[in-house]
C-alpha cells in the first residue's frame, strides 16, 4: 500500500524506468532496398567569400524565386522551384 501514496513525479519516474520503449527499438530500415538507390552529388559553394549581392544572384541562377516584398504572392510556376511539383499538387493548392 505504501507505493500508492508516493509523490506522482516519483511514480512517473518508476513507470518510465520499467516500461519498455518500443518506438526506439522497432524501426528497422530495409537496407537492401536502399543499396540500389543512385547516390546524389552535392555541389559545395564557398559562400563565406561572397557578398550578399553575389549570393542573391547565385540563388536566382539556381532557380529559386525571390519575392519583391515580404507580403507579395509567389507566382504558381515558382511555387515548387527548383524542385519538381508532386503528382498530387492539387492537395497543396494553398501553398
Automatic annotation (TrEMBL):
<dbReference type="InterPro" id="IPR036249">
    <property type="entry name" value="Thioredoxin-like_sf"/>
</dbReference>
<keyword id="KW-0732">Signal</keyword>
<feature type="compositionally biased region" description="Basic and acidic residues">
    <location>
        <begin position="85"/>
        <end position="95"/>
    </location>
</feature>
<dbReference type="InterPro" id="IPR038219">
    <property type="entry name" value="Sep15/SelM_sf"/>
</dbReference>
<feature type="signal peptide">
    <location>
        <begin position="1"/>
        <end position="23"/>
    </location>
</feature>
<protein>
    <submittedName>
        <fullName>Selenoprotein M</fullName>
    </submittedName>
</protein>
<feature type="region of interest" description="Disordered">
    <location>
        <begin position="73"/>
        <end position="95"/>
    </location>
</feature>
